[in-house]
Structure formats: structure tokens, C-alpha cells
Amino acid sequence: MKAKYFEIFSLLLFLAGCKQNVLRAQTINKTTTTESVSIVSWNLQTFFDANKDGIEYSEFLQSPNWTEQAYKARIKRLCEALKLIDADIYVFQEIENEGVLYDISNVLNVMDWNRKRKWNFACFGKTEGHAIGCAVLSRWELSDFTLNSLLVNTEEQNMPALRPILKVNVNVNQNSFVLLVNHWKSKSGGDIETEVWRDWQERQLLLLVQSLDVPCIVCAGDFNRDYSEFAYLTTKGICPWMSEAGTLVKPGSYYYKGEFERIDNFFVFGNCSICDFEPLTGGPWCNDSNIPIPFKIYSGSGYSDHLPVKCVISF
What pLDDT is recorded for position 13? Predict the structure, then answer.
């Protein structure tokens, strides 16, 4: 069965008239209830299809090694990893288009013989003309998709291309929650120089959370901001990288210049709690030192320069 897809329309998020009090997340509870949902967020590192449309990154446009065969091999390798992880919901960053999501869904569902546990719902969104976007692949029904864009014209520098927040409702039996998928501005161009745009994106996300009158909100994605660098979200919701014992969850999610960073994250607000959280290691997507194995276009090998990060929420 093919996954069910819906079209997402781009909306402008108006930064006014929002509620003043944000919902507060509950404390982390390590005991999983019977009504729980596992969510994995994974930056797939420039997952382009085999068609060269002109918007791809230069290494894909110029490489003779990026072919239909190489693309299909990468899809198969990814789906084998996803089947091994076996999450209820996958949140992806850096997918080129909905066609890639169709291919992931179809190959993954063929691999799983249990029809009741197939991932039959999905959505994808990106700004028109941009190379990559975000996606959700789910066993639970999805509805009410929107993209929430940010427009800033008050800074001395021009706003760069910022990816919108993907908002979607997830319906789990008698419960439901809003999933907000994020992929914030990278630090390319300088950590300090680009920090202003991540500040704006953090304010945008917080205001969007405040404007929603729903019992449970889950924010997920690649924030390109370490757990200690948030200005607002860590004071309003729970950052699961810090354990109840006050120690950091290891190893991290992104390995850069010989060190792990924790830039892939979850935040939960409202009437649900985080009952488990971990960066996923021990699979073929990382080496014996738990360092992610990045995708290499010249060889077609590897997975991503990010580890998948798993969060289990309970109602």
C-alpha cells in the first residue's frame, strides 16, 4: 500500500496577538505508559533524488557518480536502518522533495510484512525554489498540515533563506498532539554572524507554541543550536539532553571537528511527558566509537553526518 500524502500550503506566521503564557512540559518520567509514541528525528544529510533539476547542491550537480542506481542503493540502505529502528514516527530533515519521501515509504513498507504496523501517513514541505525540506512519516494518522514562515526586515543584514516550521496534527487513538518540525539556520557563515537568525527562529517557535490551544505539543528537528545555547525554550519546556541526575546524555547527535554536539533536539509542552530519550547508536549508521558515518557521494557509501535521535512521549 502506498503512503497517503497531503499537500502543504505555505503560511506566514504573524508575530503578534499570541497568548502570553506558554504551556509547561511535565517532568521526565522513565516509566512508559501503554499510550506512548516513539518519534525519531534524523537529519539525512542532503538526500537528493537522481534527477538533476538545477536546485541541487553543486556536488550532486557535478558528480558523475550520482546516478539512479546510486540513489536506489541509498534508499535501500536507509530503509534497512529505519526498519531496524522501528519508530512510530520519523521526522526527516534535508530531503529534496516529496518523491524521495514516496520512495522511502514504499521501500520501507515492502520490507515490513506486518500491514497493521506500516507507515501509511506522510507529509513534506519546503519553500518553493529551495533545495531541501522537512518530512514526517507516520504510523499514526496525520492531518492539518501547514508551513509557518518567518519574515524579518528589521535587521541591518538581509534575512537569509530560512526554512519554515512544518506543523502537523498526529492522531493517536483518543489522544492527539501537534508536531512542529524544525530545521534552523546552520552556522555556515560564522557562528556569531548567523546567531541572530537562530534567535529569530527560536522566538518564532515559542510564539507558535503559545498561539496553539492544544493539550500536547512536540517540537523536533535539527536546531543547529546546542542544548546550552537556547535562550527561551529551555526555560519553558524540557531539554532531554540533560538527565534527571544532572548529567548530559551521551554521546551527542552531530560530530564536528573531533567533538560531539547536541543540535538535534525535542521539546514537549502540555499534557504529555518524555518517558525516554536517546541518540541511537549501535547500528550500521555509526562506527564502533558511535560516530555517525556520513554519506559520501564519490563512493555512494554511508548514511548521514547526524545520528538519529529517539524520543518516546506518553500521554
Answer: 32
